[in-house]
Predict the structure.
Amino acid sequence: MARGSVRSPTPTPKPLLTRETPYPQESGRFPGRPTQGELQSFSPLTTVSNGGVVEVSGGTFAGAMTVTNTGVLMGRDGTVTGAVTVQSGGEIRPSAFQATGNAVLRTGDLTLQGGSKYTWEVNSWATNAGAGDEGNGFDQLQSSGAGAKLNLNSASATDRVVIKITSLNGLTPGQIANFDAAVGRQWVIADYSNGNTSGGIVGFSTDKFTLDTSAFANDPNSTRFSISTDAKSNQLILSFTPVPEPVAPLLAVAACVGFVTWLRKRKSG
């Protein structure tokens, strides 16, 4: 598909919106790089669908947005001030496709409906859920304004939100260089605590999520990830439970050593 880069007419700094055509409502409007006249007349889409991609890069998109039907909203340290709804078949991802590393995407009220996908990337096992690590070692969704919420009411145990856990080697897909299966980790993958004493995440239940580890190259079939919220239900937390120490084999060895010692003492006695 041809790709064009368009700048929204919002105040400086302006977000970079990258489109892949066709869009159903503007099929063929930007078949390649837009002309200056097209840049001047550009008005941002409110619906992203049919394989379309919108990347809000380092700026602010003033308005609401709906993502559906294989559409993708990417952040790359950008902000959408209005409400964002990701419907079944739609995808939201703080990072961009083109090897940009980890990033933060800020939104107004965010609704993740059943069948939607949140692609989350991590490239360091040294970073945890501490302040300042988000966007530098792992991706994060955040509220763009006080009181914005993450709403999961439209998802269910039979119609789940997919979190695609994706490992990066540096900036490209691959194994995390410093991965250690014996070390547990937690990451705040969505933070809607701004302006919310509690309840920034609405309708949470663990059975509303499918954790897809097929793109986690260090352990593609891992079952050690789990999802939860903080005590105030303001943050969505992804956890990795470390591989337990091989206790049984150690106990068996210890038992053998003890038995041999007992035999020696018996013979010497």
